[in-house]
Amino acid sequence: MLNHTTAEKAAGADEFLPVLIYTVLKANPPHLYSNVYFIQKFRNPSKLTTEIGYYYTNLQSVVSFIDTLDASSLTIDPAEFAEKFAGTARADEPDAPENGGTPAVPAEGG
For residues 31 and 96, is the Cβ–Cβ distance under 8 A? Predict the structure, then answer.
């Protein structure tokens, strides 16, 4: 995806988030929710006003997107979505929303 950029049009934020979503989905990192939750609770707020904060915010966006992912979010047939994503709950992460846990990225004010 990012290989299609040219010197005239470098990849930017609009291209970064979809690539990050794809990367996280393909990598399927263990304990994603608990790690993001840990960072949220124990971060140094002054560190999140820099480039690190930008990347962390993008990671929170990825987690939020994954939490609400359904067939209508994608250009995929609902039956195909159900088939491909059936039984994908993370047994290793009891805090994951699909296992009845709290989302890693709480609503504003939470």
Answer: no
Rounded alpha-carbon distances, angstroms, from residue 91 to 28, 85, 87, 101, 110:
13, 14, 10, 11, 26
Neighbours of 38 (CB within 10 A): 12
Q: pTM for the complete prediction?
A: 0.66
Q: Is the dihedral of CA 74, 78, 84, 90 positive or negative?
A: positive
Question: pLDDT (tens digit, 0 to 9) for every residue of the chain, 110 residues total?
Answer: 555 555 567 778 789 999 999 999 899 899 999 999 999 899 888 878 889 889 999 999 999 998 888 888 888 888 888 887 776 655 556 556 555 555 544 444 44
Burial of 104 from C-beta contacts in 10 A (0-12 / 13-18 / 19+): buried
Q: What is the DSSP letter of 9?
A: S
